[in-house]
Design goal:
Blueprint: H1 20-24, H2 26-46, H3 52-58, H4 64-73, E1 94-97, E2 107-110, H5 118-126, H6 131-143, E3 148-152, H7 158-165, E4 170-173, H8 177-189, H9 193-196, E5 197-200, E6 203-204, E7 211-215, H10 217-226, E8 238-243, E9 255-259, E10 276-281, H11 287-292, H12 295-298, E11 302-310, H13 312-321, H14 323-332, E12 337-342, E13 347-350, E14 363-368
Parallel strand pairs: 3-4, 3-10, 4-5, 6-9, 10-11
Antiparallel strand pairs: 1-2, 7-8, 7-9, 11-14, 12-13, 12-14
């Protein structure tokens, strides 16, 4: 469902028949159409309190293209899963997650085809994906009084769902519709999860003004064809971030609206100032932009634990933008130190030289008050 289908009923009706006088004023109308476009913002906010009959008779005739753009840019931050309940009738791919995985309540999770997609395959088999990374984060969440999870890069919601299974709140940022649908379906399967998990259908960036991100879906589709069966991953590769012009394609599939966490701090979506929070940051190469765009908000909360997925390319991007040292100092001021997961030893090792850190491949990094520990 496109973002504009929820708003302004009656706006796309048939064109009004023009009298001769109206035709004579046509040129003047074209001159002042910008003013009417501005009024659409006001009507868009006002329409929710008006009966549909009033909306249909009072809405000005504005280009449908203008209306679509206005409504897309003013798209609500939160995804209301209940309104899309009819879309989630396919119950073929579910994974049962027992309480033994992290000690929370058991739940059913909607996943992609486990025969094709690696994250879903692992969850279906083991109850979690990268369990050694998940468990220390959930442990920190449980051990911190009333802590909430900020899930930057929610995917199909494994971290957010495990947080909810412990009665904790989560805010999940996920721009891909194919993943949003799975996370929504999972929240609808458990009566109280919908109250615990809020889904923000936007990408994260470091620019406060409205921007778009462009997903490299062509590259991704080609890469998927070359992968072995079961290795598909519904993540994204971002080819353009901070774009002022809307990319071609479909919202949620080919591109997404972008936001900063700082711009949301007064919207009553994020945990309020003074809260304890745990961060999971895995946004396909935009980690530095996401954290940079959250710098003001993160100064107002107590950061209890951070999980980052980094590569050497991502680290160099952080260094060149000046964010690398800022990340370290921010987390250090919260009493946290950096650790790296050693795949061979299957354990966490202390990072002693943050400034000169070099990694091979994708590497999981944690900021913790001590060595990250399992439940």
């Amino acid at each position: 469902m496109s973002s504009h289908q929820n708003y302004i009923p009656g706006m796309h009706g048939s064109k009004r028949q023009q009298s001769k006088g109206q035709q004579q004023r046509h040129y003047m109308w074209r001159v002042v159409v910008v003013a009417f476009s501005c009024s659409a913002y006001f009507l868009y906010d006002m329409h929710k309190s008006l009966p549909p009959s009033i909306i249909a008779t009072t809405a000005p005739v504005i280009s449908s293209t203008v209306v679509d753009e206005l409504m897309e840019k003013e798209q609500k931050f939160l995804l209301n899963c209940a309104t899309f309940h009819s879309k989630y009738s396919n119950t073929d791919n579910f994974a049962h997650v027992p309480s033994s995985i992290t000690g929370g309540s058991e739940f059913n999770m909607s996943v992609h085809d486990p025969e094709k997609e690696i994250i879903s395959m692992k969850i279906k088999k083991d109850g979690c994906f990268e369990c050694d990374i998940l468990r220390p984060l959930i442990s920190a969440l449980k051990n911190s009084k009333d802590a909430s999870l900020i899930d930057m890069g929610g995917n199909i919601g494994m971290y957010s769902l495990h947080a909810a299974s412990h009665g904790r709140n989560a805010v999940a940022f996920e721009p891909l519709q194919i993943n949003q649908e799975k996370l929504c379906q999972s929240t609808l399967l458990s009566s109280d999860f919908g109250e615990k998990i809020q889904i923000v259908p936007r990408a994260l960036t470091n620019q406060n003004n409205l921007t778009y991100v462009d997903f490299n879906t062509e590259w991704f589709d080609k890469a998927v064809l070359k992968r072995k069966r079961g290795q598909k991953n519904y993540g994204t590769m971002i080819t353009g971030a901070g774009l002022d012009k809307k990319p071609p394609g479909i919202l949620g599939k080919d591109y997404a609206l972008a936001t900063t966490i700082d711009s949301m701090k007064d919207l009553h979506i994020l945990p309020p100032s003074g809260s304890n929070v745990v961060l999971k940051v895995d946004v396909e190469g935009s980690e530095c932009r996401a954290l940079s765009g959250a710098s003001e908000y993160l100064l107002t909360v107590n950061i209890e634990y951070v999980a980052l997925e980094m590569s050497q390319d991502r680290i160099e991007q952080c260094r060149s933008s000046g964010v690398w040292d800022n990340i370290y100092n921010l987390f250090l001021n919260n009493g946290l130190g950096p650790y790296m997961f050693d795949e061979k030893a299957k354990g966490w090792v202390k990072i002693h030289d943050w400034q000169d850190l070099n990694v091979t491949g994708m590497t999981d990094i944690a900021f913790s008050a001590g060595p990250p520990s399992n439940l």
